[in-house]
Amino acid sequence: MNASSIPRLEYLGLGSCNIREFPNFLRYQDTLFYLNLSWNGMHGQVPKWMWNTSRESLEFLDISHNLLSGFDQPPVVLPWVELEGLDLSLNRLSGPLLVPSLHMQFYHISNNKPTGEISPLIGNASFFVSLDLSNNHLSGMLPRCLGNYSNTLQVSGVGFLKIEKRVLSVANNYFNGTLPHLCTTNGSGLIMIDVSRNQLQGKLPRSLANCLKL
């Protein structure tokens, strides 16, 4: 395929198009800011060349509702420097949880099979609007940095998707220990916290009284 003959795209929606694998022409795209490949039945691994696709411009990526099993040579931290929204939910993804990029506001990886603990590096992304890690095989203690998100969550546009939720969900995993302090100041924007079906113990933190919108 001649890369020079492929048009440079900025917005590409290929959801529900019966695509079974990642289109090869995407490896030559360097100007995309919106990419939707959801509801396609794609299987296998996310190819390693995807990490370089529109690395400097991509803001929103949706590959949810597929049959993807994992990532080929995954990086520790997601490489897209401008990425604000990532939906990986309802796949079969296994392995360690990918660490979101600094600007991430919308991160859904629910209903998959990632294992292990949440990396403390996730605390570097401090502007979450919606963080959904529910229905996975994650374990260990919930990191204290989750308390930071409850004070910085804000309504924001992610690509062409308007997010109106301030949600934290880690339900149905294998987390243990105590619930970290959330809503550490009055006026937190959180409207939902779901930590059900884990192995948490101890008392609820007093800071929950500051979650005025729950």
Automatic annotation (TrEMBL):
Topology within the bilayer: Single-pass type I membrane protein
GO cellular component: membrane
Keyword Plastid: no
Keywords from the UniProt entry: Glycoprotein, Membrane, Receptor, Signal, Transmembrane, Transmembrane helix
UniProt cross-references to InterPro entries, sorted A to Z: Leu-rich_rpt, LRR_dom_sf, RLP23-like
A family per Pfam: LRR_1
SUPFAM superfamilies, A to Z: L domain-like
Coiled coil: none
Signal peptide: none
Gene3D superfamilies documented for this protein: Ribonuclease Inhibitor
Subcellular localization: Membrane
Protein name, per record: Putative leucine-rich repeat domain, L domain-containing protein
UniProt organism field: Rosa chinensis
